[in-house]
Design a protein that fits this description.
Elements (H helix, E strand, L loop, with lengths): L15 H11 L13 H9 L1 H12 L6 H26 L6 H18 L3 H30 L5 E3 L10 E5 L1 E6 L9 E6 L5 E6 L8 E10 L5 E9 L10 E7 L2 E8 H4 L13 E7 L7 E11 L3
Antiparallel strand pairs: 1-11, 2-5, 3-4, 4-11, 5-10, 6-9, 6-11, 7-8, 7-10
Helix pairs in contact: 1-3, 3-4, 3-5, 4-5, 5-6
C-alpha cells in the first residue's frame, strides 16, 4: 500500500477505525453553544473543544515517512499552526472570540496526540493533567477580570472605538458584529450588528461591568437606516436564573428609523416574570437579540450606565 496512510517499514498500519475516531474527535467544536446561555457544562465543552480538535488534526495529518516521533512532531506543528490561523482569522473578522487560552488548548491537544503517536502513552496522562489545570486557571483569570471591571468607576459598557471591544461583545448564532465608521453618536465609530441568515441572532456581553445597583438607568444610542422600525429584544440575566425565562428580564425596544436614544430604568430591568428581582451584583449577561423579521441591520453606540442622582 502506498500513500499517506501507508505504514512505515516495521510499523503497524493505521486502520480506518483510528481515522474515524480522530475525525469524530475533530467534530467536538460543534458543541460551542450558539445561543447566549452560559450553562457551565456547555461552556466547559466549548473551551476544551480545541483540545480534541487539535488532537484530531495530529492523528489525521501525522502519517507518512519517517520515525513515529518525527511524524508526530510534524503533525503537532501543523495542528498548532492551524489553531493559531483560526485565532488570527477570528481576530481579523470579529468572528467568535479568540483568546490565548484557545491557543493553549490547541497546543495541549497537539502535544497529547503527538505523544500518543510517538508511543509515549504513559505521558498522555501528564498532558491530560496539564489540560485540566488550565481550566481553573482560566476561570480564576476570568473572575479576576470580571470583579476588576465590575468595580471600575467608568460606567461605559461599550464605546466601540477599538477592535478589542469585539472580544467582550460576542456575536452568537446568526449575528454578525463589526466596528463601523458609517455612523456614531460619539467618537469615530459604532457597532454594526446584522443578521446573517435565518435563526437566532444574539449580541452578548458576559459579566457586564459597573455598579448596576447604584445606577439609575441603562442607556445607549442607536441608528436604524430603515425602512422599518426594528423591534430589538433586550435580555438581562444573573447567575442564578440565566437558564429560566421566568427568572430573567426581557423586553422589546422599538428602534425607529433614523437616530434615537434609549434609556431604560434599572428599577424596571431588575424585574423578572417570577417576581424575583435580578441580583445586580452578580449579573451574567446583557443580550441584544435581533428579530427574525423584518431583516435588519442596526448601529449601536455608547452603551452605558447612568448613575443615580445623589
Amino acid at each position: 500500500m502506498s500513500g499517506p496512510l501507508a505504514a512505515a517499514p516495521g510499523r503497524r498500519r493505521t486502520g480506518p477505525a483510528r481515522i474515524v475516531a480522530a475525525a469524530a474527535l475533530g467534530l467536538a467544536p460543534i458543541l460551542d453553544p450558539l445561543g447566549p446561555s452560559r450553562i457551565p457544562a456547555l461552556a466547559l465543552m466549548r473551551d476544551l473543544a480545541h483540545i480534541p480538535w487539535a488532537a484530531a488534526l495530529v492523528l489525521l495529518l501525522g502519517f507518512g515517512p519517517g520515525s513515529g516521533r518525527r511524524r508526530a512532531a510534524r503533525a503537532a506543528a501543523a495542528a498548532v499552526s492551524a489553531g493559531i490561523a483560526v485565532e488570527a482569522i477570528q481576530a481579523l473578522t470579529a468572528w467568535g472570540t479568540p483568546s490565548l487560552l484557545d491557543v493553549a488548548h490547541d497546543i495541549v491537544g497537539a502535544v497529547a496526540a503527538a505523544l500518543w503517536m510517538a508511543g509515549g502513552a504513559s505521558r498522555l496522562a501528564v498532558a491530560a493533567a496539564a489540560a485540566a489545570a488550565l481550566v481553573p486557571v482560566a476561570e480564576g483569570a476570568a473572575l479576576f477580570r470580571s470583579e476588576r471591571l465590575r468595580h471600575a468607576e467608568v460606567p461605559l459598557l461599550g464605546r466601540f472605538e477599538r477592535r478589542a471591544e469585539l472580544y467582550a461583545w460576542m456575536a452568537r448564532g446568526r449575528c454578525r458584529a463589526s466596528l463601523s465608521a458609517l455612523w456614531s453618536a460619539e467618537g469615530r465609530s459604532s457597532l454594526k450588528i446584522r443578521r446573517a441568515g435565518p435563526g437566532p441572532a444574539y449580541l452578548v456581553l458576559h459579566d457586564p461591568p459597573g455598579d448596576w445597583g447604584s445606577a439609575e438607568s441603562l442607556a445607549f444610542e442607536a441608528w436604524n437606516p430603515g425602512p422599518h422600525t426594528v423591534p430589538l429584544r433586550l435580555r438581562l440575566t444573573d447567575r442564578r436564573g440565566y437558564a429560566n425565562p421566568a427568572t430573567r428580564h426581557e423586553e422589546t425596544i422599538e428602534i425607529p428609523v433614523g437616530g434615537s436614544s434609549v434609556r431604560l430604568p434599572i428599577a424596571r430591568l431588575r424585574r423578572t416574570p417570577s417576581g424575583r428581582d435580578l441580583d445586580l451584583g452578580r449579573l451574567d449577561a446583557l443580550v441584544f437579540i435581533l428579530p427574525e423579521s423584518p431583516p435588519a441591520s442596526l448601529w449601536i453606540d455608547n452603551v452605558r450606565l447612568i448613575p443615580a442622582r445623589r
